[in-house]
Design a protein that fits this description.
By secondary structure, the protein is mainly alpha-helical. It has a domain at about 55-115: DnaJ domain (Helix Hairpins, Orthogonal Bundle), CATH 1.10.287. Helix 2 (about 40-55) packs antiparallel against helix 5, helix 3 crosses helix 5 (about 95-115) and helix 4 packs antiparallel against helix 5 (about 95-115). The protein is about 80% helix and about 0% strand.
Length: about 130
């Protein structure tokens, strides 16, 4: 009887171990794919830092402010409209207002990263 219990335990541990290994491989593959989509390298690191600082991804921020592409004027217009529409004095939600602010901060970070650094452009000109 003890022999059968030991075999069941060993088989169970093998099944759980294989499932864990498979899940780990899938997670590693998914994170590598996400890194490729984020641009990888220095651009990926900047994007990850911006995501961490605001708590939103670029895509989430664009969805919150209801924009299709990065356009500063559209972002500003939608931000002002949504922020005032969710004003607590008008019966709006402070939570939604804070999400709108965070989305704008995230998009502002993206706009700053897209602008060329003036120090780097001067260094290229002198080369």
């Amino acid at each position: 009887m003890a022999k059968y219990i030991a075999q069941i335990i060993v088989l169970g541990a093998q099944v759980v171990g294989r499932a864990f290994a498979r899940a780990l491989k899938q997670e590693i593959a998914a994170s590598q794919e996400a890194a490729k989509r984020a641009g990888g390298g220095e651009a990926g690191a900047r994007r990850a830092a911006a995501n961490a600082s605001t708590g939103l991804t670029l895509e989430e921020a664009m969805q919150i402010l209801n924009i299709e592409k990065l356009d500063m004027e559209k972002v500003k217009k939608n931000y002002e409209h949504l922020f005032s529409a969710n004003d607590k004095s008008k019966g709006g939600s402070f939570y939604l207002q804070s999400k709108i602010v965070r989305a704008k901060e995230r998009l502002d970070t993206e706009f700053k990263q897209k602008q060329p650094d003036p120090d780097q452009s001067r260094a290229k000109d002198t080369s």
